[in-house]
Specification:
Blueprint lengths: L3 E2 L2 H23 L4 E7 L3 H16 L3 E7 L5 H13 L5 E4 L9 H7 L11 H8 L8 H12 L8 E5 L6 H9 L8 E5 L6 H5 L4 E4 L17 E4 L3 E5 L5 E4 L4 H4 L5 E2 L7 H19 L4
Parallel strand pairs: 1-11, 2-3, 2-4, 5-6, 5-7, 7-8, 8-11
Antiparallel strand pairs: 9-10
Bound molecules: NADP nicotinamide-adenine-dinucleotide phosphate (NAP).
């Protein structure tokens, strides 16, 4: 039987509707407009598109957005000074530094300079540590989005075998940390696989829930999963262009073959992708409330 398709576009629409109402209430009751500042260094076309999308969604939800586009040759000191200024700005509740940064800028130093209470990307070591000890404040947006997709699609994680392929700091490690917590909507048995894993298929075949965050087109094939598995495909891999010049994107799993075997699966595009920006907006709203002491 063909798998249920987990529609990230629809779920992210629902969350944005909820956020819109919450933002309107914050404005009406407390005079708060959640504010997000983005910092973009250089001319990377993909980064420009991402920052533009973030700005657009901010505005559509009634939030305040501020965009700082800096030249490729800006000094690290200038970037740090801007972060410091935004840390102190009461209009700004969330700060996002678009990665990657040019090589002459130490990304770790810049990310650590963001006040943890404005770190809506959840990359600051304080927020990483809080997630690991089970007291999260800001969870990185993509794994947070994956968790929300599972919850809102009625996928029960408790006691399940979850296999995460990929151990990056932005996807693999944080989603593993979310799902292994002794908490509602988690409490799974989590295995993390990577390039050092011997016999990847022996692990993926055991998965009740498989999360692929690899960055390799169709790396997970149908013979590597069991019947009824729930598959979350995080990968976004351009594999060419249509005759009209549109990019063709595929995930990290062989969607067409696996959907005949899986219980549920996220498509690419339209699965995890739309959730990431939505969760950034949610984190910014949460940051605004936190900074004003609103529950
Ligand atoms: P990354 O930093 O490159 O990490 C990839 C991980 O996959 C690494 O841990 C690597 O292992 C592991 N890996 C690579 N090849 C493997 C193989 N053959 N077998 C087992 N493990 C393997 O990537 P990322 O930033 O996590 O992103 C992963 C994918 O998700 C990319 O396609 C990216 O574009 C996409 N993504 C999408 C969103 C979204 O919003 N939808 C957000 C973030 C990322 P090692 O650690 O051993 O090298």
């Amino acid at each position: 039987m063909a798998a249920k398709i987990i529609n990230g576009t629809e779920i992210s629409k629902q969350i944005k509707e909820e956020l819109k109402q919450e933002i309107a209430q914050l404005k009406e009751k407390y005079g708060i407009i959640p504010g997000l500042a983005t910092i973009l260094v250089g001319e990377d076309p993909a980064s420009k598109v991402y920052v533009g999308q973030k700005e657009k969604v901010c505005n559509a939800l009634g939030m305040y957005s501020e965009r700082h586009d800096l030249p490729e040759n800006v000094s690290e000191e200038d970037v740090l000074a801007l972060v410091e200024k935004l840390n102190k700005d009461p209009k700004i509740h969330g700060i996002l530094v678009q990665l990657p940064l040019p090589k002459h800028i130490n990304a770790t130093r810049v990310l650590y300079a963001i006040d943890a209470i404005k770190d809506v990307d959840g990359f600051h070591p304080i927020n990483v540590g809080k997630l690991v000890i089970g007291e999260p404040t800001f969870v990185p947006c993509t794994p947070n989005g994956i968790h929300e997709l599972l919850k809102r699609s009625g996928v029960d994680v408790e006691g399940k075998e979850v296999v995460v392929v990929g151990r990056s700091n932005i996807v693999g490690k944080p989603i593993a940390n979310i799902l292994l917590q002794k908490a509602k909507g988690a409490n799974a048995t989590v295995t993390i696989c990577h390039t050092g894993t011997k016999d990847l298929a022996s692990h993926t075949k055991r998965a009740d829930i498989l999360i692929a965050a690899i960055g390799k087109p169709k790396a997970i094939t149908a013979d590597m999963v069991k019947e009824g598995v729930v598959v979350i495909d995080v990968g976004v891999n351009p594999i060419g262009k249509t005759p009209e010049g549109k990019r063709i994107l595929v995930g990290d799993v062989d969607f067409e073959a696996i959907k005949e075997k899986a219980g549920a699966i996220t498509p690419v595009p339209g699965g995890v992708g739309p959730m990431t920006i939505t969760m950034l907006m949610k984190n910014t709203v949460d940051a605004a409330k936190l900074q004003r002491g609103i529950q």
